[in-house]
Specification:
16% of the residues lie in helices and 34% in strands. It is an alpha+beta fold. The radius of gyration is 22 Å and the shape is globular.
Length: 395
């Protein structure tokens, strides 16, 4: 098995495909005869979203799996910078966040926070303000204290226009994130805040062989709005879902669905959800969609209150390109909502184009593979919870 490198990242992997591409991984040390020019060309063709910057990955899926998400990683050099995002307006979260930030500062890391959080005084004075427009800071990893909404906010901060810009102002993978559940449900938050010292020590200290930490590269959606004259405008990147509905109109909605350039169906009802596996346990689940493990490379199409009995949810390959448009024959205009954080109107003849982003969000896990996800659906959603059947009694 050869080591692969992309933009300063080394990984233990065989040949593989990235999140949205299918290029061969760059090999280092495996082919001495490879020229410098060939190595450079190979590096440039390797999808950056399939790796974590400044980290050593060992894939946990079998080599025959071309689209892999589950891994262990270790840093190539000690992390130096942290972006800390917390739930606002909660005293308990603020107090715990201050403890975490002080611990990170004592370990010699520079902690960055949002300007609004800095202004509240909830964080130590040595924490520096950070905005998505700041191209002078290269974030090594993120810390989230709150619920799933706070995690979505963190992801949106890093990728409003699909990618994260580093201090060198070039396209880079998103930094990994460790999340502490301090919200209402916290389905995607893997760690308890009471254990933050042990967890953060593992993350910061994952620089040696044998100290690797588990991660899942969570799929994100890249969404663009298409105008009547065919112009594409970057709109948002979603970790959970993109929802296209009829907005505030009381009548029956009507939108056209196309996949990979081919017309698929007309959606007549309240709308359609385009969900990632991470979002499958959110709005998608509430309207009857399937639950899908975050390591599965796919997208989900789930109707909202369809006017037919036969419109069932479907799951399609993540390499698909989806376009949802409001036809001229529709009685109402449309609306598109990105991760519940941002909304835009869709007029007649306009559409939203959705693809899998090249840049997933690496989520740090407490357990290997999908064990955290199974724990969440059983403990937090009470999946398949019932009284156990008694055994047969024999006289």
């Amino acid at each position: 098995m050869a080591r692969s490198v992309v933009r300063g990242i080394t990984a233990m992997a065989g040949s593989e495909s990235g999140v949205a591409g299918h290029a061969m991984a760059t090999l280092r040390g495996a082919a001495p005869a490879m020229t410098h020019q060939a190595l450079a060309a190979s590096t440039s063709s390797c999808p950056p979203g399939s790796k974590i910057r400044n980290a050593h990955l060992m894939w946990m899926d079998e080599v025959k799996m071309k689209l892999r998400r589950r891994a262990r990683f270790r840093w190539e050099k000690s992390p130096k910078t942290v972006l800390f995002v917390k739930k606002v307006g909660d005293r308990e979260v603020s107090a715990r966040s201050r403890e975490m930030a002080e611990w990170l500062l004592r370990r010699g890391l520079q902690v960055y926070v949002e300007p609004e959080a800095k202004a509240t005084g909830d964080f130590p004075g040595d924490c520096e303000p950070w905005t998505p427009q700041d191209d002078t800071v290269d974030i090594d990893f993120g810390v989230v204290a709150g619920g799933d909404g706070t995690l979505l906010h963190f992801a949106n901060l890093l990728g409003e226009n699909e990618y994260y810009r580093s201090g060198r102002n070039d396209v880079r993978p998103l930094p990994p994130c460790v999340s502490f559940g301090m919200g209402s449900l916290g389905f995607m938050t893997s760690f308890q805040s009471e254990q933050f010292e042990r967890v953060l020590d593992q993350v910061v200290g994952a620089c040696e062989e044998g100290r690797e930490i588990y991660t899942t590269l969570r799929t994100r959606l890249s969404c663009m709005k298409k105008t009547k004259d065919g112009r594409l405008r970057p709109a948002f990147s979603c970790l959970n879902e993109c929802v296209i509905d009829k907005g505030l109109h009381p009548g029956l909605g009507k939108i056209e669905l196309a996949v990979d350039g081919q017309a698929v169906t007309t959606v007549q009802g309240d709308g359609l959800i385009i969900s990632t596996p991470s979002g499958s346990t959110g709005y998608n689940l509430a309207v009857g969609g399937a639950m899908v493990a975050p390591s599965v490379p796919c997208m989900l199409l789930t109707p909202i209150a369809p006017s037919t009995l036969s419109f069932r949810p479907v799951i399609i390959p993540e390499s698909s390109k989806i376009e949802v448009s409001v036809p001229a024959s529709a009685r109402t205009e449309g609306r598109v909502i990105f991760d519940g954080h941002r909304m835009e109107l869709l007029g007649h003849g306009e559409s939203v184009v959705v693809e899998t982003s090249r840049f997933p969000l690496p989520m740090i896990n407490s357990n290997p593979r999908d064990q955290d996800w199974f724990n969440s659906i059983t403990e937090k959603l009470q999946w398949n919870a019932r009284v156990q059947q008694k055994p047969l009694t024999r006289d």
